[in-house]
Write a structure and sequence with these properties.
globular; 1 helix; alpha+beta; 84 residues
């Protein structure tokens, strides 16, 4: 009985570790993507330091210079960045 409880506990801990690593890598890639979008749109930013997801294809990006942008897809399917 104790061996099966220990095994289940270990499985849960390892699973939680890999989920945390996966989310961290997703955050890094989203940050890079938002930095690229803002740069391609010619807006001042430097690089994005944090991203908050509002919905599907709708994010709030905070830049190192303090600017915040809402980045989303408009009704025509184009990427838009609005200064907040």
């Amino acid at each position: 009985m104790k061996k099966s409880i220990w095994s289940m506990t270990l499985i849960v801990v390892v699973t939680m570790f890999f989920v945390g690593v996966s989310q961290a890598s997703d955050d890094a890639s989203i940050t890079k993507d938002m930095t690229a979008v803002i740069a391609l749109l010619g807006l001042p930013c430097g690089h994005v330091v944090s991203v908050a997801k509002k919905g599907d294809n709708d994010h709030i990006a905070t830049c190192e210079n303090g600017n915040r942008y809402r980045i989303f897809l408009n009704s025509e399917g184009r990427v838009v960045a609005e200064k907040q």
